[in-house]
Specification:
There is one protein chain. The strands form six sheets. The chain has a 15-stranded parallel sheet that branches. An eleven-stranded parallel sheet has the order 11-14-17-20-24-26-28-30-32-34-36, with no helix packed on it. Strands 2, 4, 5, 6, 8 and 9 form a six-stranded mixed sheet that branches. It has two helices and 39 strands. The protein is globular. It has 567 residues and is an all-beta fold.
Length: 567
């Protein structure tokens, strides 16, 4: 296939030159430390996330240098995640096994260019490759091609098997014995799936689960387990059963996990399940385990289950500390992204983006920990964090009192000046909070709004927020960003955090730039060595040198992926 779409843009800037780096192919490792990160916009995607072996696929690209005038060596390739088989896509030509840059030059003659601006450009179409786990990769390297600056991914599954249909006839699926969902099949859910007490649902890394409908939900009942262990290169994806660019929040209900750990009411009933008396949770086992969620995305969930109920993308009800929650993302939920209802579960590398209501929520006595938390609020969403104890008794025990370390909360104002996004943190209804190393910026409302009897917990020292950067919220500065009479109890600096890129789009890079106060020696608090926290996190916010979002997450407005009017 011939590609002419940026030929004239390149004609001025292309300069073929001998390759001067030690690396001779794009597959070689970078030879030295990373170059400065770039805030340019770069995204690559396919029209679907799952294909049969006889389907055609289409690939699209958007690039915007955002003022970055540096020369880079740019590669595009399709790769089998399991085998490493790779085919390169040059600017002018078809897929090739030869290692070429996007200009079409081979190793020894790679040509650095200024990255051109293109929007939703169709760059390739053809038959899906052989069955397996795949991704397209856009790789930006320095001018000598030795250092990787940025990589963007479009992951997809190709299956030779027919999809597994669950609930197409409107009936529930009851998993009563140990069951494995394998990544060589695509799973379609249209009605409730229950993992019964005593049963374990194992989901292989890279498995794609497509869901649609009011009653499309996965419920792990108390005593049941889910073992969903994805990998960075092969995340487990639970998403809307629609083409990329046409998915909407509220497409399906989400993932509900029920456990046997303590909560303020002894036991409770989770919302969003039929019959309403079935989803019980809560008990007396703080170390209870409901399984493992690792590298799992839940997208476009939170359907209107009934006029009063919208399930969350991740609904964690009474989960014990034996449950592993590590590297999860809720994206574009109609209600909350991640919510803890009581329990003692811990969460690390937890991401909530684009929620239409709150990004992270808790109630009913959650006492776990969370570290490395990134919240990117929808420009028209509600609060970054909304936190309660119990509306039936503010002082009920166990009182909600999670410990949060290394949190970055980004409000909608940073991407949309007309954003109506709510507060950064709304602390109320008797909850306590301990938070350290927090970046909170860009919310349309207050940075911190403390209500009900929760302010008194700051006065007594039960609650505290320290080692924080609180900046540019609600059009206010300094203590005016903090409501509830607790400003004197919050230790923070009102300075720009200087994050690389937190725009509401694909592939954000929320790392602090060199010179940011988030990296200032003596600025962060050292997390306690209690076994649940990483004591090496010597920075304010969720990110230091590593952008741990890369490869397994998905960001941005669905409109950015809508190619119905693309060329």
């Amino acid at each position: 296939m011939t590609h002419n779409w940026i030929g004239r843009l390149l004609a001025i800037s292309l300069c073929t030159m001998p390759f001067v780096g030690a690396a001779q192919t794009a597959d070689d490792a970078a030879m030295s430390g990373p170059l400065s990160p770039t805030a340019m916009k770069a995204m690559i995607w396919t029209d679907k996330l799952g294909y049969s072996t006889d389907e055609q696929m289409n690939v699209y690209l958007t690039l915007d240098p955002m003022g970055d005038m540096n020369n880079y060596t740019w590669f595009l390739y399709r790769e089998n995640i399991e085998t490493g088989e790779r085919m390169y896509l040059p600017l002018r030509g078809n897929l090739t096994e030869d290692v070429v840059d996007y200009v079409g030059l081979e190793a020894g003659f790679f040509s650095p260019i200024q990255v051109p601006a293109v929007t939703q450009r169709h760059i390739w179409s053809g038959p899906a490759p052989a069955a397996g786990l795949w991704h397209w990769v856009g790789e930006l390297r320095g001018a000598d091609a030795t250092q990787v600056v940025k990589k963007v991914y479009a992951k997809f599954v190709v299956s030779a098997e027919s999809p597994v249909e669950l609930g197409a006839d409107g009936t529930d699926t009851e998993i009563s014995t140990d069951t494995t969902w394998t990544n060589d099949r695509i799973y379609r859910i249209q009605h409730q799936v229950f993992v019964n007490s005593g049963a374990t649902l194992t989901i292989e890394a890279g498995t794609l689960i497509l869901a649609r409908g009011q009653n499309a939900v996965i419920v792990v009942e108390k005593g049941g387990k889910i073992m969903a262990e994805g990998r960075r290169e092969a995340p487990i994806v639970m998403t809307c059963d629609a083409a990329v660019g046409e998915r909407e929040s509220g497409c399906w209900a989400g993932l509900i996990v029920l456990g046997n750990a303590p909560m303020t009411r002894g036991t409770g009933l989770a919302e969003g399940v039929i019959p309403e008396t079935r989803p019980t949770y809560g008990g007396d086992d703080p170390m209870d385990s409901s399984g493992v969620l690792r590298y799992v995305r839940v997208e476009f969930a939170g359907v209107d289950f009934n006029p009063e109920t919208q399930p969350n993308a991740f609904g964690f009800h009474g989960l014990g500390a034996g449950t592993v929650i590590d590297h999860i993302q809720a994206h574009e939920g109609e209600d909350d992204g991640i919510e803890f209802f009581g329990g003692t579960a811990n969460c690390t590398h937890c991401v909530s983006s684009g929620s239409k209501d709150d990004s992270l929520d808790w109630a009913f006595g959650w006492t776990g920990t969370a570290q490395y938390v990134f919240i990117q609020q929808d420009p028209q969403g509600d609060n970054g964090i909304e936190a309660d104890n119990d509306s039936q008794g503010f002082d009920r025990t166990p009182r909600s009192r999670p410990h949060l370390y290394n949190v970055t909360l980004v409000g909608g104002l940073l991407s949309d000046p007309s954003s109506s996004s709510g507060d950064g943190m709304r602390i109320r209804v008797g909850t306590a909070i301990t938070a350290r190393n927090v970046v909170l910026t860009g919310f349309g409302g207050d940075a911190l709004d403390v209500r009900d009897n929760s302010p008194s917990l700051f006065t007594t020292g039960t609650s505290s927020i320290t080692n924080a950067i609180i900046h540019s919220n609600g059009g206010q500065v300094g203590d005016a960003q903090i409501v509830g009479g607790v400003a004197a109890s919050v230790q923070y600096a009102d300075v720009a955090p200087m994050l690389v890129n937190v725009r509401y789009e694909a592939n954000p890079d929320p790392r602090p730039m060199l010179g940011s106060s988030a990296l200032r020696i003596g600025g962060p608090a050292t997390p306690p060595s209690d076994g649940s926290l990483d004591t090496a996190a010597q920075f304010v916010g969720a990110f230091g040198d590593e952008n741990w979002l890369e490869e397994w997450t998905f960001f941005g407005s669905e409109l950015d992926y809508d190619t119905s009017t693309s060329e």
